[in-house]
């Protein structure tokens, strides 16, 4: 048994830190895109839009029913063989695309549940004062659903940050990829992967504090 | 005087069950009509159809110059009808994400396009009228049942509707809150607001209504001034119902 090379780990910190922005960039862009897509998917399901409803059901089923890694490989290595315009897609874009699709499927189900959790009578009350479907969703239903879904959505965001590490398998040098490269040169795999693990952990911990604050704030918005 | 509200041949079916079986009803301007009758006879469905919360299968609803024909009612007509009919729900149905004031303002800003300032002034007037001048910033969860229902009424008042519809407005309330809600409805009735009220409060119906309509089996069985319906009903079904509730 050998001891940890702490000095080496310390040297790695600024190296890995340099890739934190890319990881956060992929996660934030994917999260925003996934939120928008998930809200649309959820609304299609709640309103039972003819035909689209079935398409969305299959979409959600597929992206929840297959591993994220498989989906990323499909987008990046598989699809370009058929759709030639995709050959120029880079790893970061493919990762963002894959993360968006994958997580939007999960998030759509959370948002749908939260929408259905808003008392039906509020839909009717909004209709009764003459609101259109769009107005009542935007003004009454979605704000309340967002409050209910927020903690779950935050958990998905945390999962997403960790999921960006799979971009490494698409040839992207992000935090995980950088750690892998460093380790390949030094052979100090334990140190390198430990540092990158601690980085993910720290990011997630910071977010968890934010999550708790957000929940406290949301709880206050509707005073009991 | 001609009808301000003219309902003709209204039919509503739920599957094989005909809940409204050809309702004709005419309300003159300022007329206050109470609908009574056993549960499950279509009283609430009638009100809900007048607001298109339930879509009637046949019949016409005319309010002033607006006529909505169930056979060909489009989105625009339905929205126009709703803007002319204020609906008060049994279970309040307040917007939980909004304060009392915002609940009242919502129809003015989002639906009628008023400026925020103008809507706020109007909402504050209404809050005073409903006796909640100091509770405008409270969320529904912080109000008593009676206060919530008064906000629900205030929200409908804000529409300045041609017709106010009250669907058993006190049935979900604890007995201690019934009085204040009835007082408010009485006040609105005194202002000669055209209204239709479905209620189990017979004494109240007798007191505020110009006309009482007795419904059973999806039809209007009998109607007339309260004195006649409560004192000298002609139809056996009306008398039998009144004996049971009286």
Number of domains of chain A: 2
CATH top level label of the largest domain in chain A = Mainly Alpha
Low-confidence stretches of chain B: none
Radius of gyration of CA atoms of chain A, rounded to a whole number: 21 Å
Shape of chain B: globular
* Secondary-structure class of chain B: alpha/beta
CATH class of chain B, named Alpha Beta
Major sheet description of chain A: none
Strand content of chain B: 15-25%
- Structural class, from helix and strand content of chain A? mainly alpha
How does this structure look, described?
The complex is a heterodimer of chains A (224) and B (246). With 224 residues, chain A is an all-alpha fold. Chain A folds into 2 domains: 1-19 and 173-224; 24-170, Orthogonal Bundle (MetI-like fold). Chain A contains 9 helices and no strands. Chain A is flat, with a radius of gyration of 21 Å. The mean pLDDT of chain A is 90. Chain B is 39% helix and 25% strand. Chain B is built from 9 helices and 10 strands. Chain B has helices spanning 43-50, 75-84, 100-111, 116-129, 145-157, 175-190, 202-208, 226-232, 236-245; strands at 5-14, 17-27, 32-36, 58-63, 66-69, 85-88, 163-167, 195-198, 211-216, 219-224. At the A-B interface, helix 6 and helix 7 of A face helix 2, strand 6, helix 3 and helix 5 of B.
């Amino acid at each position: 048994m050998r001891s940890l090379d702490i000095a080496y780990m310390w040297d790695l910190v600024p190296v890995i830190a340099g890739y934190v922005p890319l990881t956060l960039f992929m996660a934030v862009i994917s999260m925003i895109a996934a939120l928008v897509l998930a809200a649309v998917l959820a609304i299609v399901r709640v309103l039972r839009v003819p035909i689209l409803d079935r398409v969305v059901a299959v979409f959600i089923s597929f992206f929840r029913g297959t591993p994220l890694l498989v989906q990323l490989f499909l987008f990046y290595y598989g699809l370009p063989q058929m759709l030639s315009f995709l050959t120029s897609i880079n790893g970061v874009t493919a990762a963002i695309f894959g993360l968006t699709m994958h997580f939007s499927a999960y998030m759509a189900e959370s948002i749908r549940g939260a929408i259905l959790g808003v008392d039906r009578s509020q839909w009717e009350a909004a209709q009764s004062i003459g609101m259109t479907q769009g107005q009542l969703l935007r003004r009454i239903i979605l704000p309340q659903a967002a409050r209910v879904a927020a903690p779950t959505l935050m958990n998905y965001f945390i999962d997403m940050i960790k999921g960006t590490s799979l971009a490494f398998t698409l040839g992207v040098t992000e935090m995980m990829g950088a750690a892998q490269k460093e380790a390949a040169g030094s052979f100090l795999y334990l140190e390198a992967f430990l540092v990158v693990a601690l980085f993910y952990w720290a990011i997630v911990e910071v977010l968890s504090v934010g999550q708790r604050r957000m929940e406290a704030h949301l709880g206050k918005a509707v005073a009991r | 005087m001609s009808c301000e509200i003219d309902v003709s041949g209204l039919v509503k079916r739920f599957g094989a069950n005909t809940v409204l079986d050809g309702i004709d009803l005419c309300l003159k301007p300022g007329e206050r009509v109470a609908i009574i009758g056993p549960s499950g006879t279509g009283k609430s469905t009638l009100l809900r159809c007048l607001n298109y919360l339930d879509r009637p299968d046949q019949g016409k609803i005319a309010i002033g110059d607006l006529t909505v024909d169930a056979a060909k009612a489009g989105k625009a007509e339905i929205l126009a009808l709703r803007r002319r009919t204020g609906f008060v729900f049994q279970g309040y149905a307040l917007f939980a994400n909004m304060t009392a004031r915002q609940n009242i303002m919502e129809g003015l800003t989002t639906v009628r396009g008023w400026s925020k300032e103008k809507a706020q002034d109007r909402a504050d007037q209404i809050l005073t009228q409903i006796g909640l001048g100091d509770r405008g910033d409270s969320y529904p969860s912080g109000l008593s049942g009676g206060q919530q229902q008064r906000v629900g009424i205030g929200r409908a008042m804000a529409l300045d509707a041609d017709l106010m519809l009250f669907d058993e407005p006190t049935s979900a309330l604890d007995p201690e809150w019934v009085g204040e809600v009835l007082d408010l409805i009485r006040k609105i009735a005194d202002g000669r607001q055209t209204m239709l009220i479905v209620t189990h409060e017979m004494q109240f119906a007798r007191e505020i209504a110009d006309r009482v309509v007795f419904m059973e089996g999806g039809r209007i069985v009998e109607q007339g001034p309260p004195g006649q319906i409560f004192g000298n009903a002609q139809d056996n079904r009306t008398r039998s119902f009144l004996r049971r509730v009286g």
